[in-house]
Design a protein that fits this description.
By secondary structure, the protein is α+β, with helices and mostly antiparallel strands. Strands 1, 2, 3, 4, 5, 6 and 7 form a 7-stranded antiparallel beta sheet that branches. The C terminus is likely disordered.
């Protein structure tokens, strides 16, 4: 326990109801304090009002870590520790309603107990907002926001941001844009993702790794080099949430889907295919089912669904995402087997996937539907050229393969021949059995009959 003269206790509760009183025992460093979402590391000793110690991280010789403001600890801690600076030691006197209340925490903490904690703030890490919690987007709240609502994907946000790269400010501006379309305003992915966690009037510092910033391309117009990590200070001045599809009635859903379709088409015409895909995906969330629509509205829904799949297929072809393009075409052809655009675009995707045979079938079906479709005619010729090239390559591959097989068989045969014993060298002209066996009685009586001359021929024969 720290034995220093105590300062006056301060009520740190938002309601100023005396529920959490803080007394600073040792001043901390600097002015920064942890914000909600930060992972803090502290040492503490907890006692009852009679001095009985009920818990102590110091006795375990291991600091305690938790995420601040996430209800992982008693309410008094979320309130009191958020007021502490690095290195600070403070006493927190916590009334029951901010601790364990009427239930207590048996067996060590009785019901309705006032608790006293001596806490040392060791350090904290900024809140990680990256999707994979890989430290790519870190937030430190400078000024807390108001309320409980945050922008959603598609919301219109009004922000002020100051961006720094390697300690140099590269922008300081106000900007209004729709989340999901930030690239149109030189807003990086990391900022958009973070804004979905902001509260109105919140001011925070963001540390964004290059993979969530402008990546290997950088941003030359902002003097941002490739693979640069960025730091932003952002204030969310205002925002208007995009209405969730489940809050809309059928006509509103159709209107919203049509709005995204038109917006996506504008991005497509401008060559901004990634953005167009985002808008078509948002469009889909409003019309992915015909449930809840009248018969007349179902017709409109199906027309919009068909247009969405066809437009996505075209975008994917431009982005060389040919499997995705094929799948979008299949979605159309399942309900409309003779859709000319879907057949043609699927043929293109097959051709790009180096599958000329199914591509030819699709292009031929297009010509049956429209004999004057010159693009399909060209597609068939391109596929035939590709097929001819593939077969020529296959012949070369097989020829080389057979040549290798023949060479391998010859080498194997030669190796097997070498491994066979040479009978003449091993046994001589006559077998071992003949050279070593005992001569017969006849041979003993007639020794010269089977003698060989110098040429290896029999004598006396």
């Amino acid at each position: 326990m720290v034995n220093q003269p105590q300062e006056e206790a301060i009520d740190v509760t938002p309601e100023l109801d005396g529920g959490v009183l803080k007394t600073v025992l040792k001043e901390g460093e600097g002015v920064s304090k942890p914000s909600n979402g930060c992972k803090v590391s502290v040492h503490y000793v907890g006692t009852l009002t009679d001095g009985t110690v009920f818990d102590s991280s110091r006795e375990r010789s291991e600091p305690f870590e938790f995420e601040l403001g996430k209800d992982h600890v008693i309410k008094a801690w979320d309130i009191g520790i958020a007021t502490m600076r690095k290195g600070e030691i403070a006493k927190l006197t916590c009334q029951p309603q901010y601790a364990y209340g009427a239930a207590g925490s048996p067996p060590k903490i009785p019901p309705n107990a006032t608790l006293i904690f001596e806490v040392e703030m060791i350090s904290w890490k900024a809140e990680d907002l990256s999707p994979k919690r890989d430290g790519g987007i870190l937030r430190t709240i400078i000024e807390s926001g108001e309320g409980f609502s945050s922008p959603n994907d598609g919301a219109t946000v009004d922000i002020h941001l100051t961006g720094e790269c390697n300690g140099q400010v590269f922008e300081d501006r106000d900007v209004i844009f729709c989340i999901g379309e930030g690239s149109e305003h030189n807003i990086c992915d990391g900022v958009e993702r973070a804004l979905e966690k902001f509260k109105i009037k919140e001011k925070s510092k963001l540390q964004i790794k290059s993979r969530y910033a402008f990546g290997s391309a950088g941003k030359p117009e902002l003097n941002i080099p490739p693979n640069a990590d960025l730091e932003y200070t952002i204030t969310l001045n205002n925002f208007e949430k995009l209405k969730d599809f489940w809050t809309l009635d059928a006509p509103e859903k159709l209107a919203q889907a049509s709005f995204f379709k038109e917006k996506g088409s504008r991005y497509f015409k401008d060559g901004k295919y990634e953005l167009a895909c985002k808008l078509y995906d948002k469009m889909n969330s409003y019309i992915n089912s015909t449930a809840g629509f009248s018969e007349a509205e179902e017709v409109s829904v199906k027309d919009l669904q068909k247009a969405m799949h066809l437009n996505l297929a075209l975008c994917y072809l431009k982005l060389n995402r040919n499997l995705d393009a094929r799948n979008e075409c299949n979605s159309v052809l399942e309900v409309d087997p003779n859709n000319e655009k879907a057949l043609f675009r699927r043929g293109q995707s097959y051709m790009n996937l180096a599958e000329p045979e199914p591509a030819i079938k699709d292009f031929e079906t297009v010509l049956k539907l429209d004999p004057k479709n010159s693009a399909a005619t060209r597609g068939i010729q391109q596929c035939k050229d590709l097929l001819k090239k593939q077969r020529s390559q296959e012949k070369k591959i097989y020829a080389n393969m057979f040549e290798k097989f023949a060479k391998h068989d010859k080498e194997k045969e030669e190796e097997e021949r070498k491994q066979q014993p040479d009978v003449m060298k091993t046994l001589g002209e006559w077998g071992e059995d003949e050279r070593e066996r005992e001569p017969t009685k006849f041979e003993k009586e007639n020794p010269n009959i089977f003698m060989l001359d110098g040429n290896g021929d029999f004598k006396n024969m």
